[in-house]
Structure prediction request, 117 residues.
Amino acid sequence: MTQKPKKKSRQQVFTLLVEVGRTADDGLPDGATGAALMCYSSGVDEAEAVRETVAILKQADLAPLDVSGYGTLDERLAEGHEIPDEERALMQRALDENSVIIAQMTPFFEGDKADAD
Prediction:
């Protein structure tokens, strides 16, 4: 019996920045007003990656408020971004596991975000 060649996955990894607000059991530090999460999420397109990321964060008792997409690895390289090996490894892990990887969490505290007015 001949083994069929493995079908190439259409999955890609997207870099997303997600701002979250507070909930009762979110695990954010005391006094934080929210946080920014740098995530790598797999999906066939950016919309799917965003949906999956928001669903996972809600399951983790976080309150996603806003998501900014920064594209795939190739798109970021085309824009001139320098992407270190550690970041590339996390992106590959997200692709291999078809998952969402939270690479960095930066809590916000009162006064961190200056008003643009």
About this structure: The CA atoms of residues 40 and 91 lie 6 Å apart. The mean pLDDT is 89. The two ends are 69 Å apart (CA to CA).
